[in-house]
Amino acid sequence: MTEDQDLRRFQELVEASAHRELTEAETAFVGRMGFRSEECRQWLEADAETVTTALEQDPLREVASPSPLDWARLETGLQRAGALNNPKVQVRKSWPLLPAAAALVLCIGVVYAILRDGLSDNTVSPSPMVAEILDLPDGDGSLIFDEGKDEDGVLMIVLSNG
Amino acid sequence: MNESPSRASSPVSASGASQLAGGSVDVEQDDEDRRLVHRHLSGDDTGFEQLYRRYRERIFAVLVRMLRNREDALEATQDVFIKIHRGLDSFDPSGRFLTWAYRIASNHAIDRIRRRKVRKETAITEETIAGDSDLRTGRASEPAAGAELERIEIAEAVARAVDELGEAHRMVFTLHCYEGLSYGEIAAVLGIPVGTVMSRLYHARRKVREALPTDWDPGGPSRSRGRSEG
User: Fold this and answer.
1) How many whole angstroms separate alpha carbon B58 and alpha carbon B77?
2) What is the C-alpha to C-alpha distance for residues B58 and B63, in angstroms, rounded to an integer?
3) Quick one: which of B162, B144, B146, B168 has its CA closest to B220?
4) What would the pLDDT profile of B117-130 be if each residue is shown by its tens digit?
5) pTM (2 d.p.)
6) Who among B52, B177, B201 is closest to A55 (CB)?
7) What is the ipTM of this complex?
8) Helical spans, DSSP H, in chain B
9) pLDDT at B224
10) Does A28 reach chain B within 8 Å, measured CB to CB?
């Protein structure tokens, strides 16, 4: 195709896009020619200068920043949504550190005490233990008179003929 | 072709234009954005907070221009940043964060426009145009005359024409004419082919131009006077 034909087709397609959806190939042609062809670009940009000049009068050309109050309002929404940290919540978050540390110290103390003293809650000093080895032959006529167990150990009373 | 128009509009878009102009500043900012995203994804909340501080004005400005209403835009800015926060793990670090953020903002704006069907009675254009000269010059309201009347007339015509653009055309028009995005960048933001961007922009421009008074001379005295007043 000649340049003139390209330009004509380019114009037709751009105009047609107002009324129908262009095919992929047509869209690609417009994009390609819009970049490549100086004539096509000039035609495409025919209104650009006038519109740019008119836009200089548009108040939205300069958008004033929202007020600090507006930003604060917006940020409150972001904090609620969890997108921004809430400084107040941060302060609250720091408080549990103290009880947590105290609880940890307490736990360590308890574990240490258990390891040292065992689980017995007996606070009085244990009775002295007496051990005696009795070497009694079987059938020697000894009579186990009483055998009992309690928390302090085994009590055995043996009557022996020895 | 004026692919990336250098419009010195608001301080917001002026910085946007410089960023979109390309160069090492862009690359550095993009890298920093990616670092902040990574920081957020690693569990450091300050990553998102810094992204928010960095781009809140830019997102607000683009939403004001798309929605033509400050209150709506403020609300929408909040919604957009919540969406950004929730979707950061789906951000592709090979792309630009700002392009991705613009896409979320544009889609959200389209949704809002469709939902509300433009509450024209509260449109910013009407409330702002009336007090616009006071806001810019700091002068008390005086009966407008001559060039000032013409300026107001043009402003109203532009505002009405942009309001009447369909959302698809308005998005392209806003991103190009106010935000200074190139055809390629708009295509990336909106997820449409460059050819579609070109044709939509062509029709949007034509509608705005047709809405202008036929006897208006873009190079006329009002324009030069406006410029000399700064």
Assistant:
1) 10
2) 9
3) B146
4) 645 544 555 555 54
5) 0.66
6) B177
7) 0.70
8) 11-20, 24-41, 46-67, 70-87, 97-116, 124-137, 147-164, 167-173, 183-190, 194-211, 221-228
9) 40
10) yes
